[in-house]
Fold this sequence. Notes:
Elements: H1 12-42, H2 48-51, H3 57-92, H4 97-112, H5 115-128, H6 130-133, H7 137-167, H8 170-178, H9 183-198, H10 200-213, H11 225-235, H12 244-274, H13 288-299
Helix pairs in contact: 3-4, 3-7, 3-11, 4-7, 5-7, 7-9, 7-10, 8-9, 10-12, 11-12
Amino acid sequence: MSASVLYDAPGPKARVRNRVYSVIGTLAVLGLIVFAVLRLSAKGQFAPEMWEIFNYAGVRTSIRDGVLTTLQVFAVASVLSLVLGVVLAVARLSDHQPVRWLATGFVELFRAIPLLITIYVLWVLLLTYRSDLGLTGDSTGFWALVVGLTVYNGSVQAEVLRAGINAVPRGQREAAYALGMSKTQVMTTVLIPQGVRAMLPTIISQLVVTLKDTSLGYVITYQELLYQLQQIANNTIVNDDNPYVPVIIVGGTIYIAMCLALSSLATWIERRGRRAKTGIPVADAAQPLAAADALDAVEQPAPEQPAGKVN
């Protein structure tokens, strides 16, 4: 029996007991799922008429507009959050103490406040000063959602980038300073590129969180995907009931598809980074004679000089 500090390998009886518990737990979960499906089916949520609502052009248009609006908010918020994350990460690594304090306070504040509260407060403030800022009704909700997502996810991205920068070996920083580089050059050409590459999976994971958090726009009645789905379910009556289950299934499938697409992009970027050519280049196989001649020239000893003659 092998053991470690954090985990003791189970014996024969423990393995049998774990298998029994796993089977019982799986059966219990499956039983709950079957029970829920039967109850919903009895209420007519899986009737064919419930799914026919997606054949209407108005319903498909509402879903399409919701998807496009969600992607628009995500695109703007993700770019701004990455820019803010870089600025905050560099500020937290600054040699100036007031700059570090301001950046640390900003990061800790917006990481601690629930994102929903931040979005709602921004929405109220923008509504209050909407006339002074020249905003319309739709743009007010858009910028409240974008700014809320930016400050929260930018704070998280700043900590991710700071961890990646601190993970770069200290010798590379010292070597860059020894070459006469300034701190700005060291940060922009040595530390940040390696930190971003090391933390790329975590950065993309946080972007997936940003995409999912766009659904909080329904609280401020911004017409993103979740709000559109809610309106479809509330305003449609089929067989004297609202089609909540079909709308939830379709909406969940769309969100899962968008998140999987973003995760696939992250995987592709990571694999492409691993295939980057590094190290000593391999000699061209089409020129074996030139390579052999060069090797012979290196290995050939220097000619001996006659005694008493100095060049």
